[in-house]
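The instructor's notes for this session suggest beginning with a concrete chain rather than abstract definitions. Hand out the sequence below and ask the class to guess, before any prediction is shown, which regions might be ordered.
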Amino acid sequence: MSDQLEQEWPLDEQGFPHREAARVVIFNPRQEVYLIKGHDYADVNHAWWFTVGGGKMSGETGAEAAARELAEETGLIADINRFVGPVLYRESTFRFVNKTSKQDEYFFVLHVSDEEKAIIDGGVNRSLTALEKEVLDEHRWWNLEDLARAEDGGETVYPLNFVTMAQRWAEGWDGQLLTVVEH
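After discussion, reveal the predicted structure:
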């Protein structure tokens, strides 16, 4: 696992694992959002819900990385011209695998059809990394009201205040790039 982490998370000038990433907020026709629940490889009790996405590869644009991650994590292939945004830029500092890590993320919105939802639900063409297979526990479509109740009940969702932002994006995007810094 450590070799894969070192490749995906190069050290920055301060010595922290640090990468750029792209994420996808996926809405189905019922305005439900698709999230994945995962846990820290070093602490199975530290779990949270998050959007599809991951690190950018050298030379990729944010939308290209988002499309690749979408295909890898859900099996759905979508043209980058369908992605809305970026709608959010997030700088985050967090603990993962007993290390303080940093990630700079651009979030895109994608609305999918029922047929595409079925591809995501089937997961037939997923191509997860060994680490993802180890730490990704669950995936599901959330009604935003249910997700808000789950957060109130103690579920962790990243980025913070996700439900509020997702409500804004569900019907359309106002063109404003939101910025969030979480440390």
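Then share the key points. The mean pLDDT is 86. The beta strands are 18-27, 33-40, 43-50, 52-55, 84-96, 99-111, 136-142, 178-182.
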